[in-house]
Every structure is written in C-alpha cells, then in structure tokens.
Amino acid sequence: MPTATKIRPRTLVRASGGPRYAVALAVDALGTGLLRPFLLLYGVAVLRLSAPATGIAMTVGVVTGLVCMPAVGRWLDRGARSTVVAASMLVRVAGVALLLATPAGHVWLFATAALLLGVGNQAWPAAHAALVATVAHGRERDTALAAGRALRNAGMGVGALIATACLAGGTTALQALAVVTGLAYLTAAALAWSVHLHAHPAATRAEDLDGETGPAPRMRALLSANVIYVFCLNVPEIALPLILVTQLHASPMWSAAIFVANTVLVVTLQVPVTVLMARFSRRTVLALSGVVLTASYLGFLAATSLGHGWGAPAVAAVSVVCTIGEIVYAGSATALVAALAPAHVLGRALARFQLSTGFGLAVSPMAITALAPHGPAALWGSLAAATLVSAGAVATEKDQVAPVTRVAPPS
C-alpha cells in the first residue's frame, strides 16, 4: 500500500482546506480555548448560579445539541461544506451573545446559551471532516484531518493559557473573555464562509465506484466501540485529576502537568503518527489504538497501587502511553468512517459517528465519577475491559456493502 513518506506543509494546508480555512480553524480554536474550559466558572461566578444547576445546564446543552446531527448530515449530503462549518461557528456566536445578555440568576437563559454552544460544538466536527474529505482523498485526507486536530489542540491550548492568566481579573475578566470568544467565532465564521466550498450531489454520486449508490454504512460495531473509545479524551481532564487529588493526595500540579503534556504531545505527534500508521489499514490501526488504551488503563491501575509518593510520577508516566493511544485513535477513527462511506452519504455517516462521539463524551464524566469511589480496580479495570472488547469488535467487524441501486453517471 503506497503511503506518504514526507509531510509537506504547503500540500498539507491545501489538503486541509487552504490558507484561509486554516486561519479560520486557528481563530475558532483560540476562541474556544478562551471560554469553553471556564464556562462552568462563568455560570457560578458571573451569573451567581449554583454549581449543580450550572453543571446540569451544561450537560443538558451538550446532550440536546446532539439532536441537530441528523439535520447536519442531510445538509452536508445536499452538498454544503464551508457553509455548514460557518453555521456551526455562527450558532456559537449566538450562544456567547445570549450568555453575555443573561442576567444573574437566570438558569434557563444560561441553559439556552449552553444549548447553542453545544449545537455548534457538535456540528463542527462532522462539517469539518466533510469539508476536508471534499478537498483531499485517500491517505492525504487522513493526514489533513490529523493536521486539523493538531492545529485545533494548539489553538485551544493557547486560548486556555491566556484565559488562565486573565482569571485574576475576576468576573470582569470572564465577561471580557466571553466577548473576545464571540468575536473570534464571528471572525472564524467569516473566514470559513469565504472559502465557498460546495460539493454538488451529482458529482459526489459520480465519485462512488461504478456509479453505485446506497444508504450510509451501518458500522454498528464501530459506532458502539467509539462510545467507549472516546472515554480516553476525558481521562486527562477528569479521571486523572480525580484519582491524583482524592486517592493519591498528590499536588494539583501533577494534573496540570499531565494536561499540558497531553496537549503538547497531540500537537507535535498527531500528524507524524498518522503518517507512520498509514502503512496499515485504518481498521487495524483503530483496533491497535484500543489495545494501547487498554494497556494504559492497566498501567494506571498498577500506578495507583504504589500509593502516595511514587504513585503520582507513575501515573504521569503512564499518561504518555494513554496519549499515544488517543493520538492513534483520533488519527484513524474519523478517517475510517470517511473511507467507508460512499460520497453521496458522507454527511450522514459522519453525523452518526459524531452522535456516538458526543454521547460518549457526555456520559463519560458521569461513568468515571461513579466508578472512581469504588476504587482503582473498579475504574481502570472496567475501562480496560470495555476498551479491549471494543477493540475486538472493531477488528472483527466486516465492512459490509449495503444493497445498491444503479444510477446513471452525470452527463
């Protein structure tokens, strides 16, 4: 199987949507990093809401935002690309504007703002993946998707650092961060819309082999496994801080260091690792990522048994393995869905994949916090077992070809 052996920046930028689109991604990520990690704090400190009410409102917003995905998939399959990306950003502009207009104590307005932010955050990944898949193909598409993730993580990391430095300003600083976030989303939306990328439905049908068309692939095992796989994205942010602080009684600095290391590794290694793995099939790589994640969960179980003293350094060391598993997963999962789906149903396939991702991200904090009080074996043992079963399901699932209907190629 031929693979790319070199990473050419200009080619990568073109395959990712072009220079303007790359700038739009960077600006959008920067704005997301400014506010998203501190949205809970905004509700508590600025709007004077209780922490439980704020958390419930945010969760409801994220979960309800998933309802928009079928419509997003159909919109993409009608050919829209940059318009959907821009729309996902504009919805977040509306969310930030409502957030700024919400008076103190109004939880329902805050919940509505969280809903709009949730809709934008859920719609963006599928829209972005569809846009990249329209510009690039094959392994070049995989690398472009990886580059987009690296760029997004870098922008969010920088935004979070800026926001952290500004938090000393109290509620005024949080409101200022919200204003800057809204402006960043608006700028990014304008840049994304200016790309004017559209895929004509007739042309996408012609891209399918021999003019065949059919429904989106079911991918049942893949979508079910993905719900478990995405737990790895919340391990550095939720599981490890919880274990380090409450069970190992370690300094919060360990959690911060692990989070920073995770971000740096994703930014620097996402593209090279994706290129390196291109010599294997995407399904094999995705199954391998599950094995790596399983090994890291078992490593966390062993590290936590060391107790106070050596436990925190051991957890930090194992977190590198977990991040590698995350990188391999992120570089193969969306790419596999894009490769399996016929061009004319790409949007619906990506939307279904985002539904499984969003659902996994929504339930993982609840599952992690429910398992953690029962001890390391309950948490890490359960995650390891579920992830290993998921990896097996991914490896053994056959790429089914749905019944097709012949269509005449476009004249």
From TrEMBL:
Subcellular location: Cell membrane
Keyword Transport: yes
Chain segments annotated as transmembrane: 21-45, 51-72, 84-101, 176-195, 227-248, 254-278, 285-303, 315-341, 353-372, 378-396
Domain of life: Bacteria
Major localization listed first in the record, in broad terms: membrane
SUPFAM superfamilies: MFS general substrate transporter (SSF103473)
Organism: Streptomyces durmitorensis
Protein name: MFS transporter
